[in-house]
Amino acid sequence: MLATILPVLLLMFGLWGPPKLWHTIRDMIQGPKKHHGYFSLEQATYSYAQYRSMALAEVNDMHRSYVKLSRTHKRIGYDLGYPAKLRRLEELTILNALVTLNIAHLALSERPGLAETNSGDLGRVRETLKHFVRDWSSEGAKERGTTLEPILDALCLVSPERRAGMRVLVPGAGLGRLVWEISQLGYDTTANELSSFMTLAFRFLLSPSTTQRAEQHTIYPYAYWFSHQRSSESLFRPVSFPDTVPRLGDRLHLVEGDFLTHSRNYDIIVTLFFIDTSLNVISTLEHIYELLLPGGTWINLGPLLWPGGAQARVELSLDEILQLAKMIGFEIEGEDGGTIEADALRTRSVRCEYTGDRHAMMKYMYDSEFWVARKPK
Ligand SMILES: C[S@@+](CC[C@H](N)C(=O)[O-])C[C@H]1O[C@@H](n2cnc3c(N)ncnc32)[C@H](O)[C@@H]1O
């Protein structure tokens, strides 16, 4: 009984509860935090449900910091509109929560008996909100242009008649725009994703019960981070999504779970900002090779940003990665005296951003590496 009503109560409290007080009372009642895995459905659902209270608690902290100013400086802050800015942040957090609560509702409606957890991850929810921008908004079109186009150009070299009979896998598919674009080219495509933060948000777009039309949802993805902003208009700007509505179907499939346990064979595997998330990149490359049919193609675009804190077994440089690929058996397009079939297949650096805020005063720029490799026939 408690298992059934608790998630609903949490959702309600997420919507109406005073943030700090609720966290304290909840921790006293529920005891030590229960973990179901950082990317688990339980963790993600709870985090989406509790986004509002966690984010409002941060706004409270910002307000408390502000009121510590001297009376004169508070007056200056007031004249600059700072308290009103914090109120605006509070309002927009509540609007963002309309989306996150709907994601949590969808998860709970599909899995009513979901086990309880009591630790939320605000950072990952915010990251997913930015992925809505990267993958599914008009604002993200420029970023998608630099990251997706090299891959799509390479895939366009296959004649449209042959594409329908070819299976493509995108492991670490995130919110699924790349995989959807590939399906639009006529390939039979599968998105694979480990993190429930991503799959729940993707499902929120895929489900007719939550997303019926283009530009239906609005979020304020940058509002929480006051750094590097030129103006409050820029900080608080809304972003609508999706620019187009994706649906699963004959050509678009979603497989949730760890890529390393996936076992179907594919003609093409595409990795975008993926291989460097591996805890063991040797296993990842070996598994890509294993899943490819003889003569199959691996297309990669991404940086080498290894998980920090010595979590990864090995942290290789680009030349080591390419050497590893060859040791596993891959032939890299245009290397070892081979000729390149088309310029779109050329190994090269691609300068691109990842969930960047295009109006901000600071940018993270990646010189990502693009390559196409083949498994010999
Ligand atoms: C840096 S993100 C890139 C997401 C997407 N490709 C993009 O470019 O927007 C890497 C993604 O890979 C997923 N991932 C990491 N390890 C995975 C694994 N073993 N199996 C499936 N997905 C994995 C993560 O959850 C994350 O969503």
UniProtKB/TrEMBL annotation:
Keywords, A to Z, come to: Signal
Q: Pfam families per the record? A: CARME
Q: Which residues cross the membrane?
A: none
Q: What GO terms are given for molecular function?
A: S-adenosylmethionine-dependent methyltransferase activity
| Leader sequence residues | 1-22
- Which PANTHER family does this entry report, sorted A to Z? CARNOSINE N-METHYLTRANSFERASE, PTHR12303:SF13
| Protein name stated in the entry | Uncharacterized protein
Biological source species:
Phanerochaete carnosa (strain HHB-10118-sp)
